[in-house]
Amino acid sequence: MVKYGLDYTRCRWILPLLLGIGVIFGIIALAGRGWLESQTLPYVQQASLWESCRRPEQGGDWTCESLMGYAWGRAAAATYLVGFILLVICFALAIIAFAIDTLRFNFIRGIGGLLFVAAVFSIMGLVIYPVKFTSEMEMTGINMFSWAYGFGWTTAIMEICLGFFFCCLPNYEDQILGNVKPTYFYSSP
């Protein structure tokens, strides 16, 4: 991307596209019921960020309990939700930043800083949830943190990596805008 510059049409929208993928992963994590699941038959426990469900036997009905009744449940949901909202704001700002013909590199660096803040909030929620869930909720059988929880961690890792990219991109401003003379390594005989 740096070699061809941000005006190169196929490379200009890579960063906002990656942020969009991060937003989609965050939506999957927020809406998914697979934060914690039973690992073996009979499947007796399933939890999301918002509620915990269990059933007594294989054919029984699921009974669900809201995690919003616990202070740690509200804290985990709130911190992860704040991180997700900041990610959506960064996505909107990135679309605006890359749609303008003249890039504002300080604006891009600010998006990177905001992504780091979003990552901190997301990681706080992702750490609070398993620590408090396993210590305060009754667990039966063998359980594992599952696919939706993994999407949450993928979102947090993408926030960190894209934050570095957005913060480091202004260091190559001259190369991106084409203000540097090419260096040729040719010596005459």
How would you explain this protein's 3D organization?
With 189 residues, the protein is an alpha+beta fold. The chain has a domain of 119 residues. 56% of the residues lie in helices and 9% in strands. The protein is built from five helices and five strands. A five-stranded antiparallel beta sheet has the order 4-3-2-1-5. Helix 1 packs antiparallel against helix 2, helix 1 runs antiparallel to helix 4 and helix 2 runs antiparallel to helix 3.
State the helicity in percent bands. 55-70%
**Ends distance:** 34 Å
How many DSSP H or I helices?
Answer: 5
Strand order of the largest sheet: 4-3-2-1-5
Low-confidence stretches: none
Shape: elongated
Major β-sheet profile: 5 strands, antiparallel
Question: What value does the average pLDDT take?
Answer: 83
Structural class: alpha+beta
Strand content: 5-15%
Query: How much is the radius of gyration in Å?
Result: 22 Å
Family: Belongs to the TMEM47 family.
Subcellular location: Cell junction, Desmosome; Cell membrane; Cytoplasm
Protein name: p53 apoptosis effector related to PMP-22
GO biological process, one term: cell-cell adhesion
